[in-house]
Structures are given as C-alpha cells and as structure tokens.
C-alpha cells in the first residue's frame, strides 16, 4: 500500500502473535510491547540522515558517522501511545518526548485537545508519532493536525496494528506522513475495534477494563 511500510521482521511478527492472544497476561503484554517497540523504532529510524564528526580513537583521528540534525521527537498519543515510549527511548535515549491528548466531543463529534506538550523548534525536527492502534484514524489525524499547527513538518506515524479504514482516512488527511505498522488487519468492527486485533491496547497494557 502506498505510503505505508509494513514491518515484517520475523521477531516483530512473532511477538505480535503472542500479544494478540487473549490469554497473554498484562505483565507479558507489557514486556512484549517494550521489546517490540524497540524493534519498531529500529525500523522507523532506518533511513535517518548521517553526517560525519571528527573524532579521536585511542589510535588515530578519523571521520565517523553521527545522526544529523536536531534531536528526534517521539510524540505519544495518550494513553496507549505511552506503552511504546519505553522501548523507543532505550534505543534513542536523547529523543525529546511530546504528549498529546485528544478526545471526541459527543455532541459536535469533533476532536478536542485536552493536553499538548512538545519541545521547541518542532519545525526543525523529525517527529515520530506513536499510538499502538490505527483504528478509525481520528485521534492520530487530530494529533498530527495539532503538531502541524505548532510547526511540525517532518512527521512519521508508528503503530502496531492498522485497519484499512483508518489508513484511508489518515492518508486523506495527511498524505505526507508515512505510516509504519507491524500489520494491516482485516477491518474495524461496529464498535471500532480492529479485527482480528488484540483488543483494547490501553486496557491490555495497564490491566484496566
Ligand atoms: N483501540 C484499541 O485499543 N483497540 C482497537 O481495536 C481499536 C482502537
């Protein structure tokens, strides 16, 4: 699918299968989420630009590659996005973190922002927006709207599972944002759950219901 990268690494696929199982415990789900998010982070950053830095090894001077540009931003869509942060920050400890909270107003059906915090100079940074589930796409679309309003220009979206309906909505709103996902599932059910999916990602990682 255009504009969508499916991360088909065997370890990612294996861990995802265990996460989908209804009998996987909260502790197991959380541990797997941390492991899988590290692998997803590796893939979503695979083509970052490098520059060279003059360094001294114990033997000699040499030009050696380092990441170019300002520190990355990981933008978590509350609350389930937070589950992806730990593994990603282990791989990129210097990344800045943004938190974005949006809910849908029951009357207007419009997304309402209730929390937004991000580092400065968003326009000069790569922003990787994270949310485990791309279902209808409404919250990720709204979160990216908010980031763009604050100047973000270079944005990627990372999730675990995506529904085809959500991808279509997302791409209509933000055709410039590449989606990275471990799986494109079959469809959304009438309650907005991804099928076959893994249930409610927030509930599964935090043990709520
Ligand atoms: N959010 C979830 O946590 N799970 C779904 O299946 C859809 C949205």
TrEMBL record:
Keywords: Allosteric enzyme, Glycosyltransferase, GTP-binding, Magnesium, Nucleotide-binding, Transferase. It is an enzyme of class 2 (transferase). Its cofactor is Mg(2+). Catalyzes the conversion of uracil and 5-phospho-alpha-D-ribose 1-diphosphate (PRPP) to UMP and diphosphate. Pathway: Pyrimidine metabolism; UMP biosynthesis via salvage pathway; UMP from uracil: step 1/1. Binds 1 Mg(2+) ion per subunit. The magnesium is bound as Mg-PRPP. It catalyses: UMP + diphosphate = 5-phospho-alpha-D-ribose 1-diphosphate + uracil. Allosterically activated by GTP. Uracil binds at residues 194, 199-201. InterPro entries: PRTase-like, PRTase_dom, Upp_B, UPRT, UPRTase/APRTase. It holds the Pfam family UPRTase. GO terms for molecular function: GTP binding; magnesium ion binding; uracil phosphoribosyltransferase activity. NCBIfam families: PRK00129.1 (NF001097), upp (TIGR01091). Its EC number is 2.4.2.9. Belongs to the UPRTase family. Gene3D superfamilies: 3.40.50.2020. 5-phospho-alpha-D-ribose 1-diphosphate binds at residues 79, 104, 131-139, 200. One of its GO terms (biological process) is UMP salvage. The keyword Transmembrane helix does not apply. GO terms for cellular component: cytoplasm. The gene is upp. Residues 6-208 form the Phosphoribosyltransferase domain. This is Uracil phosphoribosyltransferase. The keyword Protein biosynthesis does not apply. The lineage of its organism: Bacteria, Pseudomonadati, Pseudomonadota, Alphaproteobacteria, Hyphomicrobiales.
């Amino acid at each position: 699918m255009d504009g969508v990268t499916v991360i088909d690494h065997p370890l990612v696929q294996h861990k995802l299968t265990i996460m989908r199982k209804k009998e996987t415990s909260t502790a197991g789900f959380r541990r797997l989420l941390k492991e899988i998010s590290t692998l997803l982070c590796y893939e979503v950053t695979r083509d970052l630009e490098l520059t060279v830095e003059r360094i001294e090894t114990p033997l000699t001077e040499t030009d050696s590659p380092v990441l170019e540009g300002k520190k990355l931003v990981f933008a978590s869509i509350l609350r389930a996005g937070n589950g992806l942060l730990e593994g990603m920050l282990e791989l990129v400890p210097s990344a800045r973190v943004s938190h974005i909270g949006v809910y849908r107003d029951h009357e207007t059906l419009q997304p309402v922002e209730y929390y937004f915090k991000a580092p400065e100079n968003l326009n000069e940074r790569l922003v990787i927006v994270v949310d485990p589930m791309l279902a209808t796409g409404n919250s990720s679309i709204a979160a990216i709207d908010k980031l763009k309003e604050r100047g973000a220009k270079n944005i990627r979206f990372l999730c675990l599972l995506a529904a085809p309906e959500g991808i279509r909505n997302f791409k209509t709103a933000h055709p410039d944002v590449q989606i990275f996902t471990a799986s494109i599932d079959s469809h959304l059910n009438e309650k907005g759950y991804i099928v076959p999916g893994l249930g409610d990602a927030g509930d599964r990682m935090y043990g709520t219901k």
